[in-house]
Design brief:
Blueprint (H helix, E strand, L loop, with lengths): L1 E5 L6 H10 L3 E5 L10 H6 L7 E4 L2 E4 L1 H11 L13 H9 L1 H15 L13 H12 L12 H16 L7 H11 L2 H10 L2
Parallel strand pairs: 1-2
Antiparallel strand pairs: 1-3, 3-4
Helix pairs in contact: 1-3, 1-7, 1-9, 3-7, 4-7, 5-6, 5-7, 7-8
C-alpha cells in the first residue's frame, strides 16, 4: 500500500492532488508539523529532511513533492500522468514538472523576503522572468503540454494556486486565472482541497 505522509496547510497539497488524480489506492498518514511529528526518528527514516510530504511504497521511500509526482507517474504508467520515456514531449514534461520547485518557489521567496539577487547568479533568473515565462507557456493551454493533463500540471497548478489565488503574492494575470480555474474544476483538485482543509 502506498502511504502518503502529509500535513494540512503545507506543501503536501500537490501530492494529495496527484494521488487523487492517480486513482491509485493509498493511505494518508497525518504528520502534524505543528506538533513536530516530522522530526520523529521513524519519520526521519522516510524523509531525513524532516519535511512533508513524503511517500513510501513498499521498499521505496522518498520526500520532495515534485519527486513524489515523478515517482508515481513513472512507477504507475496506467495513471497516464506522464508521457512515455520515448515520447518527445517527455523533455518538456520534465522541465515543467520541476519548474515549480526550481523557479516558482524561489521566485515566491524572493518576492516575500524582498531579497535582491542578481539575475546572473539566481538559478531562477528573477521573479518577473519566472512569471513571464509561465504566462507565455500557459496562454497556449489548456494544460502545460497542450491537450493532455500531466503530473507537471499538478506541480505548476499547485505553485500558481498558492502564489496567485491563496496568498496573492504574485499579481493575477488572465492566463494564470484561466489555468487555475481549469485546475480547480478538476474533481481530484476539489477532493484534495477538502482533504487538506481537514
Amino acid at each position: 500500500m502506498i502511504k502518503l505522509y502529509w500535513s494540512p496547510r503545507s506543501r503536501s497539497f500537490s501530492t494529495l492532488w496527484l494521488m487523487e488524480e492517480s486513482g491509485l489506492p493509498y493511505e494518508r498518514v497525518l504528520t502534524d508539523i505543528s506538533t513536530g511529528a516530522q522530526k520523529a526518528p521513524d519519520y526521519l527514516k522516510i524523509n531525513p529532511m524532516g519535511k512533508v510530504p513524503a511517500l513510501s511504497d513498499g521498499e521505496a521511500a522518498l520526500g520532495e513533492a515534485a519527486a513524489i509526482c515523478a515517482y508515481i507517474a513513472d512507477r504507475y504508467p496506467e495513471t497516464k500522468l506522464a508521457p512515455a520515456v520515448t515520447d518527445p514531449r517527455r523533455a518538456r514534461y520534465l522541465q515543467w514538472l520541476f519548474f515549480s520547485p526550481s523557479c516558482i518557489e524561489p521566485a515566491i521567496i524572493q518576492i516575500f523576503t524582498k531579497i535582491e539577487v542578481p539575475t546572473s547568479t539566481a538559478a531562477w533568473g528573477s521573479a518577473t522572468q519566472v512569471f513571464d515565462v509561465m504566462e507565455a507557456a500557459l496562454e497556449k493551454g489548456p494544460w502545460i503540454l497542450g491537450e493532455e493533463f500531466s503530473a507537471a500540471d499538478v506541480t505548476i497548478g499547485s505553485g500558481l494556486n498558492f502564489a496567485v489565488r491563496l496568498f496573492k503574492m504574485v499579481p493575477s494575470r488572465p492566463a494564470f486565472d484561466a489555468y487555475i480555474a481549469r485546475c480547480m474544476a478538476r474533481p481530484a483538485f476539489r477532493r484534495a482541497e477538502t482533504i487538506a482543509a481537514g
